[in-house]
Amino acid sequence: DLFVSTYALSELHPKVRRRYFYALIVRCKRGFIIDNFEDLRSTVSGPQDPTDRGDFIGLDLVRRLQEYAFDVHITTYQQVLGLRGPSVIAPMAAAAKIMPQDD
C-alpha cells in the first residue's frame, strides 16, 4: 500500500510509467516520489528522449493523482533543506489517497 520512487519512475520510458501508474500507483494508499524528469530534459546534451513529453511524471503525474482523489504535496530539496538560491532541484511529491470517512 506504499509506492516509493527515488528518481526511477521519471527515468522510465513513458509507456512503462503509464503501466506503473495504473497497475501500482493508483492502487496504493500512500506514496513518495522524487522526480528528476526536468533535470533529465534540461541536460547540456539535450533530452535523452526528445519524444518524451513528460506523461505520468512531474506536474502531469500530480494532475492525474488528483483526478484519483489523492492529496498531493509538492516541494523541492531547497525547501526541505531550508536553502536559498536561484537553482531548482528535483521536485518531490508525497501523496495520500483521500478515503471517504465512515458516518
What do these coordinates show?
It is a single chain. With 103 residues, the protein is an alpha+beta fold. The chain is 33% helix and 23% strand. The protein is built from five helices and four strands, in the order βααβααβαβ. It has helices at residues 8-11, 14-23, 37-41, 58-67, 77-81; strands at residues 2-6, 30-34, 70-76, 91-97. The protein has a four-stranded mixed β-sheet with strand order 1-2-4-3. The longest helix has 10 residues, at 14-23. It is globular and about 35 Å long. Residues 87-92 have low confidence and may be disordered.
What is the topology?
Layout: E1 2-6, H1 8-11, H2 14-23, E2 30-34, H3 37-41, H4 58-67, E3 70-76, H5 77-81, E4 91-97
Parallel strand pairs: 1-2
Antiparallel strand pairs: 2-4, 3-4
Could you name the key traits of this structure?
globular; 23% strand; 5 helices; alpha+beta; 33% helix; 103 residues
